[in-house]
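Summary for the lay section of the report: proteins are chains of building blocks that fold into shapes. Here we show the chain for Chorismate synthase and then a coded description of the shape we predicted for it.
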Amino acid sequence: MSGIWGNNIKLSIFGESHGKAIGINIDGLEPGIELDLDYINKEMGRRAPGKSKLATSRKEEDSFQILSGYFNGRTTGTPLCAIIYNTNQHSKDYEKTKNLMRPSHGDFTGYIKYKGFNDYRGGGHFSGRITAPLVFAGAVCKQILEKKGIVIGSHIKSIGKLEDKSFNMVDIDEKVLITLRENLFPTIDEKIALKMKDIIIKAREEKDSVGGVIETAVINLPVGIGEPFFDSVESTLAQLLFSIPAVKGVEFGSGFHITELKGSEANDEYYMDGDKVRTYSNNNGGVLGGITNGMPLVFRVAIKPTPSISKVQRTIDIDSGKNREMEIIGRHDPCIVPRALPVVEAAAAIAILDLC
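The coded shape description reads as follows.
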């Protein structure tokens, strides 16, 4: 299994969507770190399902229990282990279709890799449900980073074909980032937000789903974090971001748009701002040579449409080897983007702390 990640900080996730519990083990945290449990609960609540008509009706509070590595309000330096119990499973929804490979899920690949012994209920270990422990770890890492002045925040850049072009993350400050985190559907333009919500509601009414793009900024990063090549900021971040189910693309700075620019347009020219080195533009997203340059670290992730939809779809019966049609029954998000925001931020926090 690939459930272990990290160099300086090592994570190990465990559990299945419809199992008894899910959880995470974090090794490498320094002793004596004071944790704000209310802060962690707030971050968990941002990802938790069942809070909006824009999300799945499965209600999970995502309440966590710390089992080890935490004593008298501070980390002990030994592995920090947290568990989140599953309380609202509808496992019977998956019994009738257990041999039908849901399109664009991990059912087929998981069945082959694990020789048919994988837990198929709700996607098992392949489920987005397993991102809850990542949010826990990210909330711990965020607290450590914020004590150093490093702040992470995101907003919804697009839903379907509708893009919010009213805002530039390069100009963002700490106050705006924190304000965005207080919103379950964070966008800068409220009119755009209402239109995006309508797109999601319409998709649900049509028994379909939509995807979108999340844009994230990390500010106040010191110059010099990261390494060239294999442990670059981009490669480290990208590995964790692509570990999030439904992420199909990652770009930094101007991303693919930079290919449309000439070198004279794409280059980030320097200037002195007092005793600090700045750049007039940030097309490279705050990273040069794999190393932070002191400008905001800006990246975007593409989230695919939720593959669980109620429309009739073509598939196969893996047991009989015959073609079939199926209609997915259960409780599913018409758009996973709003609930993915804290997961993306968590991945960023984990990756950056691992690099620091």
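Put simply, here is one thing we learned. The longest helix spans residues 337-355.
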